[in-house]
Amino acid sequence: MPWINGRELSSATKHARQRSRRRLFSVCAILSAAVLFLSALYLSGAPADKHLSVYSVAANYALPLVQRDGRDYVGLLELLEPLGQVTAKSDGSKWRIRYNSSVEGDFQVGKNHAQVMGREADLGGKFLMENKRGLVPVGSLGSLLPRFLGGPVTLHEAAGRLFIGSIATHFTVSLAGENPPRLVFHFTAPVNPIIATEPGSLRMTFSREPIVSPASPTLTFGNKTIPSAIFSEGNAAAAITVNASIPVMATFSSDGRTITIAPTTVTVQNIPPANPSNAVRAATAPAQNQPTTAPAAAANPIPRRYFAVVDASHGGDDHGETLNTTLMEKDITVALARSLRQELESRGITTLVLRDSDANLPVDQRAVFANADHAAIYVALHASSFGHGVRVYTAMLPYGGDDRGPFRSWSTAQRPSLPLSQRIAGLVASELQRRQIPVHDLAAPLRPLNNITGPAIAVEVAPQGSDVSQLTAPDYQQLVTSAVATAIANARDQLGAAP
Amino acid sequence: MIPRHLAIGMAVLLAAALVLGGYAWHVRKTVTAAPEVAADTRPLAPPLAGPTEPVILFVAHDEDGTLRAESAQIPMPSNRQQRAEELLRTLLSIYLDRNSPHVLGPGSEIHSVFLVDPGVAVIDVNGAFADTHRSGVLVEEMTVASLIHTISANTQGILKVKILVDGKQRDTLAGHADLSSYYDVSAVNQLAAELQPGQ
């Protein structure tokens, strides 16, 4: 055995310590990397927050779901709040909810059954209470809600979509033309999907609209360029994916009721939409095997499709004022709306006319369309034989209507935007006055002004003299609408910054 | 041979039939002859007797689209609710007059006014009030503002007002003014101020 002196021994010990430190360092580094890798893996695999979309005549909204015991749960109070008057109180493990002062439900923590108006309701899982919030399994809503609401509901549980009443929006699709082909979707109500693109497909995601599946979710067209489209639903939304072998784009027409998918080689101008002025947005999908360089419009969908929403008040059975034996207010408002659209668009303002025909359109629906589109300005048009000149109105909000939690009261939805609405009304009045038109700027208890979430005004046009037939004169209509359009165009910066 | 008791019964029945027939003929003639009273559905005027009080009515004027304060001396009951009813009936009598500054349809009437604490007034008008009202944003809101501003100016503590038609809720007065919600008295008072002459 070789001998070593003290200095050699000291050197050997030092080397051993260094090796040991290096080994320890390596182990720590490997462990850290492993922890980071596993964390990243865990986070990437974590499910996204789940939601339940609720579609009803009163409101369309989404609620977060929580997962307990392997089931999806939703807060019953939060679900019913936008639909009516709801109160809830808890007493120990008991929880009582009252809907519209007439329907009462009694729940008990841990029980699979509840009592609604004295009748037993199966929850299909345990009732839970967290922070005094009553949570029910999502699967129970199909049987539980009709007892509260007194009407049918349809639950698409796997997709997280709940339809209250007959609220569904249906669609048909047809292929028009062969070279180039155009795929035309017709919807029963205006839609505003998010357009996203992937190689070889264009995907329209409907998160707010109650779109329902056609007879078959897969639609084939026997065309090489656009062979098929697939309807799917999941995570609280519906989607239509259009498969295409070349880049395609989507254009909107008929006030959002028609979407046309066509190859990008066909320009928007070549597509004859039902209403050319409404073709305002296009998104392209790259062809398969091509780099996914989608334009900004496709990558970041535009939240606002129309800057201005013009509402021709009345329509259908609602004639408005009978101005004379042959003249109805509803007819004048349509003419004024068309004239205003033309004036706005000539100033570069994209405009949606809510009623372009003699159709019934409830005031709630008008507000829903305007709110869903996040329009920068909503203008309701009225005509009257009373008085002279033009009146510009902003909402006179009703009493009360306090917001509840995250939900804004429908009757006073206009409240946050009212100051801006009043400023715009003032600008419109000034512009009319500048053109020698008698004008009055007032508040009015006029629906749906109070239900619009953005800036909203109403314009009531009366003849300058006593001759009601002046309301039909295109010159007079244009005089008024051009003043309104000029004021809106001048306020574009203010309106563009509005929420 | 017919038994005697049957013959007597038959005679009594015949006599009763004749008497009743004669009476029916008489009643029919009376109804036919009664003169047709023309339907006067105007609201009753306030009672002429009793002490009068000064009140302020806010009267809509169509010719310039204004709401003008007009003082009046009218007999007023002591009950708060009846006072409110009399006040609005007086206002309505102005609108139903031949020289009305803001014409309401014939037969328009205030059924009743309910004052509910705290601060709620419910004005119940009849069907003719709404059915015959002229349609238009301004013309309808002038009527609404006139009723609400008059009642709130003369009755302390009213915060919100609901207008019913024949005891039921209606969407609008005549296609425009919203009747589905409670009116905020402060908002109506502000509108009334904007409708004053010279504003």
Give the gist of this structure.
The complex is a heterodimer of chains A (499) and B (199). Chain A is of the alpha+beta class and 499 residues long.
Secondary-structure class of chain B: alpha+beta
Instruction: Return the string of H and E elements of chain B.
Output: HEEHEEHHEEH
By DSSP (H or I, 4+ residues per run), the number of helices of chain A equals 9
What is the CA–CA distance across the termini of chain B?
A: 101 Å
Structural class of chain A: alpha+beta
User: Cα-atom Rg of chain B, whole angstroms?
Assistant: 26 Å
Largest sheet of chain B: 4 strands, mixed
If you average the pLDDT of chain A, what whole number results?
A: 81
Q: Supply the number of structural domains of chain A.
A: 3
CATH class of the largest domain in chain A, named: Alpha Beta
Percent helix of chain B, as a range, is 25-40%
Helix percentage of chain A: 25-40%
Proportion of strand residues of chain B: 15-25%
- Looking at the chains present, what oligomeric state does this protein adopt? heterodimer
Q: Going by CATH, what is the homologous superfamily of the largest domain in chain A? A: Zn-dependent exopeptidases
Structure description:
- The complex is a heterodimer of chains A (499) and B (199).
- Chain A has helices at 6-45, 76-80, 141-149, 296-299, 329-346, 363-372, 418-434, 474-490, 492-496; strands at residues 51-55, 60-64, 66-68, 71-75, 86-91, 94-99, 103-108, 113-116, 119-122, 128-130, 133-137, 153-156, 161-164, 171-178, 181-187, 194-198, 201-206, 218-220, 228-234, 237-243, 248-253, 258-263, 284-285, 308-312, 351-353, 377-383, 390-395, 439-444, 456-461.
- In chain A, a hairpin with a 2-residue loop joins strand 5 (86-91) and strand 6 (94-99).
- The longest helix of chain A has 40 residues, at 6-45.
- Chain A is 25% helix and 30% strand.
- Chain B is α+β, with helices and mostly antiparallel strands.
- Chain B folds into two domains: 1-34; 52-194, no CATH class.
- In chain B, strand 1 (52-61) and strand 2 (66-75) form a beta hairpin.
- In chain B, helix 2 (80-95) runs antiparallel to helix 4 (137-154) and helix 4 (137-154) crosses helix 5.
